[in-house]
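Pipeline run #58 for the internal structure catalog. This entry was flagged by the ingest filter as a single-chain record with no existing model, so it goes straight to prediction. Upstream metadata was stripped on purpose; only the residue string is passed forward. Reviewer on rotation: M.T. Logging verbosity set to normal.
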Amino acid sequence: MTLSLAEQVAQMVVVRASGFLFDHQIRYPLWEPPVHRLQHWLQDLGVGGVILVDGSAMELAIRTQLLQSWAKFPLLVAADVEEGVGQRFAGATWLPPMMAIGALANQSLEQAELYAEKIGEIIAQEALIVGLNWILAPVVDVNNNPKNPVINVRSFGETPQRVSRLATALIRGCQRYPVLTAAKHFPGHGDTAIDSHIELPSIPHPDERLTEIELPPFVASMKSGVDAVMMAHLLIPAWDAERPATLSPAIVQGQLRQRLGFEGLVVTDALVMGAIAKRYSQEEAAILAVEAGADILLMPLDPQVTIEAVCGAVAEGRIPRERIEASVNRIWQAKAKVFPNWRSSEPYIPTQRDPKIVFDSLSQRISQETVTTILQQSLKQGGNLPLVIPQTPQPLQNLVIVDDLLNCAILGNHTPAIARPTQLGYQLQLVDCHAVVSSGSETDSLLRISSDPTLLQVFIRANAFRDSSGLTQIAQHCLNILLRQNQLQALVIYGSPYTLEQFLPQIPSTTPFVFSYGQTPTAQAIALKVLWGI
């Protein structure tokens, strides 16, 4: 099949879309097009792929089938399902963060590898069931900066050896199914204190340090046959003092292609992220990314603008036509892997999915048992456990701190962190990032904490587009008040082990505490069973 230049460039574009079925359900209208526009992009422009967010797993199975039916050519359908399909699409298995797997390696690296391989299988199997064929995982960043606001528990750990072993195990698990994987974020986003969704971080290390710490997990992933490498929106002065890695020929071509010999797909991180969008126009970002060597332009704001800009650069002689053809060849090879029965000379007919098979294949018992085992074995605890409820009736407070109550899939009246304390007589107080905490004296804060014995539960981890440092300050503020009043009954932290390390030296050694890498209702139930000795 002969493609026009515009069709070739369109194959290099992966657009974002809502996983919900109907337009009125769209949550991010700036980034997620309504049906008529999305259908135009796929049917008329011939856009090569879609990255999906939100919705339930069952409706996603319908949604992906519909998208494939619109497409001029079969689509790469991607999602950031680093922690399982259930992380993004309700109902499927939501796995623990990768750092929980890394924690298991403290006891046995071999056992941790088995779990990493198993979760790779779970992710790939459930992805295919709902129509995803590109898993944007694993994260192979070495999280060696405790203040990292965006990687954090998404990483397997703090050493290149551990990250390499566990990432390659996850890739092996995925490879048992016809799905694509992606190692991210090259050349390594682990040692940053700035979120590239918001601003452009800089990695000041010399080549020797990058080679020793940041690069080994990428090298290991490539040797394991990872299908794609996602570029990071990072400035690496040792390699290119002017352009972010995503837009740098010296890094994409010089380091990734030539030095490391990677021959698979190179995909940009989302082009709407602040690190790129605040510095470059849509048109220039797309042209520079292709000039640098990117095969896939992920999440441009407007694909039509992007396609026209790249085609214009080819017409002007700025980008050689061969550069486009090389990317399209790699994309075609990737699609041949996930569509083994499709021939480019024939129209693609998407697979029809039986709803019963979809239902029966998601959140299977063995998957849930794997989740429970990892959460239990990675749990941390201390102080005088179990927590004993006072026999004499007295007011008790359940103070829950969470990132954003308006955008929270892990808490509700039915979830253990809320429901279980309520059953035991605790009064609920919820605090999120919108709480007003004075920068001066704690006494003049608008946040009021009762003086009753208090169970403090903190949900904190990396969140894209939102710096978690403000939430940490709020949690610290609440902890200070409770300690001053001598009313901290117990502490439960869900998510970041670095918050535990920060808070633990401040609390009395007898105060019960429980830490879980997970934040899901399953993680909450396990943590609270340990807290109360249930």
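catalog note: The longest helix spans residues 109-130.
catalog note: The two ends are 64 Å apart (CA to CA).
status: ready for reviewer M.T.
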